[in-house]
């Protein structure tokens, strides 16, 4: 196996996922998939339209990111009416703005009592029993909040990268 890695230098294999923007896109989609696993329990968000918006934001940002990866891998980036770096910059900017709203709304409506949230884990009946073998509701809410913040940071890193690329005029 080591001989194969020495034979194939990663820098010699042209692939989108070996670049910084490709790696960021893969990380964005991976974290979004993790978020979706915690959102599989619809009881976390169906009671509030603001929380439903948060789920919509995750979906709105996930599908273009996945399509960007696929489009670049199969060579569709040249079929866009604008240059691909500008398209990715605008897409990342939109995703950052949407993720900011999702993070703020999720934190307010899940953990602030004024908006119907529960700031303490002990307020949930399924979290009281220490012998449970599953993740309780409050833990799922917290996991979604942490992963949303993490994905926001990844999108901000992508935005900084693309702002630099577009301002300098460098193609990746």
From TrEMBL:
InterPro entries: Marvel (IPR008253), MYADM-like (IPR047123)
Superkingdom of origin: Eukaryota
Record-given protein name: MARVEL domain-containing protein
Broad class of where this protein is predominantly found: membrane
Pfam families xrefs: MARVEL
Keywords annotated in UniProt: Membrane, Repeat, Transmembrane, Transmembrane helix
PROSITE patterns documented for this protein: MARVEL
Family indicated by similarity: Belongs to the MAL family.
Taxonomic source organism: Ovis ammon polii
Residue stretches making up the MARVEL domain: 16-167
GO CC, any one term: cell-cell junction
């Amino acid at each position: 196996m080591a001989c194969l890695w020495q034979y194939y230098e990663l820098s010699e294999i042209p692939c989108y996922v070996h670049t910084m923007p490709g790696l960021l896109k893969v990380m964005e989609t991976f974290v979004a998939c993790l978020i979706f696993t915690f959102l599989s329990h619809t009881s976390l968000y169906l009671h509030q339209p603001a929380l439903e918006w948060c789920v919509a934001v995750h979906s709105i940002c996930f599908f273009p990111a996945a399509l960007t990866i696929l489009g670049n891998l199969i060579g569709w980036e040249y079929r866009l009416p604008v240059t691909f770096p500008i398209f990715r910059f605008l897409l990342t900017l939109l995703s950052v703005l949407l993720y900011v709203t999702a993070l703020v709304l999720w934190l307010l409506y899940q953990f602030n009592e004024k908006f119907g949230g529960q700031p303490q884990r002990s307020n949930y009946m399924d979290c009281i029993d220490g012998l449970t073998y599953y993740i309780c509701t409050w833990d799922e809410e917290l996991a979604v909040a942490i992963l949303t913040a993490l994905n926001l940071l990844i999108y901000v890193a992508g935005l900084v990268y693309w702002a630099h690329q577009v301002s300098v005029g460098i193609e990746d």
